[in-house]
Amino acid sequence: MNDIQNNINHENIDATFLHLALSLADDYIGVFYVNIFDNSYVEYGVSGGKKELTVLSSGDDFFGDTISNCRRLVYPKDQEIFLKRFNKEVMLNALYAGESFTLNYRLVERGEPVYYNLKTIKSINDPQHVIIGIRNVDKEMKYQESLADSSATYNRIASALADRYEVIYYVDIETDAYNEYSSSEKYTQLKVGNHGDDFWADTQKNMKNSIFEEDYPMMSEAMRKARVLNRLERSAVFSITYRLKIGGSAEYVNLRAVQTEDKKHLVIAVSNIDESIKAEKEMREALGTAMEQANRDELTGVKSKRAYVNDINKLEDDVTVGVVTEYALGVFDVNNLKMINDTLGHNAGDEFIRDACHMICKTFKHSPIYRVGGDEFVAILKGHDYAIRDSLLDELKTQILENMDMGLVTLAGGIATYKASDGDTTTQVFNRADAEMYEHKKYLKTLE
Question: pLDDT tens digits, residue range 102-126?
């Protein structure tokens, strides 16, 4: 052993190898110098602050000793693959082909598997020898395993979502940068990139060509950053249904947006619901008569309370996404119905209700009218009727006074306007209109 050690800096090891061994000492825990003709070897390590090369062991049969050491030190699950890959024939074939030979495996340290890397190169000035370095790569390998686990987890999630979502966007709320994940050929035809720096600007640009024309104005307003974030402040999910132009036809899709737990990102997923929407449409058409009857008041022919609930909910959604920015509600109540029923009978009372309904419909010609109770009606005013709502209400009140003089049907009415600046809900607008109606009713009582 001493003889070998004394010859380290001489003919046994070329100067280039010595330099490399010393420079790699921080990374390599051991270096073997192996004679490929007689299999003899010397194992070197580094000791001292000056990184002096020191002989750790030596032997006459490197490959034989490797088998013994493998059974003793290598992690049991890696032993067979280690012995199969790390043998003299395989190693030399790689070296003669001009390649280095490398192998990752695990040793058992304190009862736990630890990753190491074995690398073999030919000695630069000595064709009889090869140099084998052993390096601890545990941190690197376990980091790669964690990345692989994360990637596998993502792939499982993506596979699970693939059947439901056509495309998923991951958007940085602060920078607006985004990544797009899609496995759908339909969506790749839309030419939306896999990554971008401004999701909102790119969305507005892409929508011009991809959104069905009738739905574009709604989506252009709805898919603005401030609107989406404002909606998410009030609700856990932002959801909107629209149509995309795909393959020359329009297909219904649903977009859902949620914030991540740290509030720093949005996850926006688009699912194709075309089949379910069209199946529902076919069902509605098949049940068209029954549905129409359910949404119509049998006595007056105007819309029913059920229709009012549906329409007022849709109005609330349209206001939220900016499709509707102004509207008013008119609330009307028939006067003296109970007296008519008690004195003239219910048939006369029904006729009284029909006459009152006719007055409302004649005045608000461009607005849907709903019978929401026995003697209560509501009008949703938008567009033309909204613009002249005050004059229309005055017209109705004039007709009511004329009817009072002639002993005909009378009713009380009030109108309230949606105030966006106050964050109005439809319920708040209705309550104000209802209060106005009761003030009018009190006034009419003073005239009887």
Answer: 899 999 999 999 999 998 888 767 7
Beta bridge partners of 155: none
CA atoms within 13 A on the CB side of 30: 13
Instruction: Please give the angle made by the CA atoms of 100, 105 and 108, to the nearest 5 degrees.
Output: 145
Q: Are 321 and 222 in contact (CB under 8 A)?
A: yes
pTM over 0.85: no
263 membership: H or E segment, kind and range:
none
Place of tokens 């966006």: 420
- The H-assigned helical ranges of 24-137 are 62-73, 76-85, 88-96
Three-state SS at 40: coil
- What digits encode the pLDDT tens for the residues 159-214? 555 556 788 888 999 999 988 877 666 655 444 457 889 999 999 998 988 899 99
Single out the residue of 436, 361, 448, 351 nearest to residue 401, CA to CA: 448
Distance (Å, rounded) from C-alpha 141 to C-alpha 118? 13
Q: With contact defined as beta carbons under 8 Å apart, do 440 and 412 qualify?
A: yes
User: Which phi and psi angles does 141 have, rounded to 5°?
Assistant: -70, -40
Tokens of 143: 């980091």
Q: What is the gyration radius of the CA atoms in the chain, in angstroms? A: 41
* Phi, psi values for residue 376, rounded to 5°: -115, 140
DSSP 87: S
Query: Among residues 209, 211, 213, 228, which one has the least CA distance to residue 169?
Result: 228
Q: In the sheet where 167-172 sits, what is the strand order?
A: 195-196, 178-182, 167-172, 265-272, 249-259, 238-246
Sheet strands side by side (includes 369-371): 369-371, 376-381, 328-334, 411-417
